[in-house]
Amino acid sequence: MTATFLIIEDQVSMAGLLKSELARLTDAPIEVCHDMAEARALIESGREIAVCLTGLQLPDSHENEIIHLLRAHHIPTVVLTGSYKESTRQAMFELKVADYVIKESIASIRYAVQITHRLYHNAQRHVWLLGHGQRSSARLLGMLRTHRYQVRAYDCTRTLLADLKKDRPNLLVLDGTQTEPGNHTFDLINVLRQDYLPSQLPIIACESSEQISNAIKLMKYGVNDFYNTSFTPEEFYVRVNQNIEQAEVYHKIERLSQRDSLTGLYNRRTFFSKAQAVVQQAEAEGGYFFVLMADIDHFKQVNDTHGHQKGDEAIGFVARCLREQFASGLVGRFGGEEFCVIGRLADTREAEQDAEALRARIEDASLAQTGVAFTLSQGLTFSGASVDEAVKKADDALYQSKAQGRNRVTSVF
Question: Which residue, 395, 275, 261, 391, is CA-closest to 316?
Answer without folding.
Answer: 261
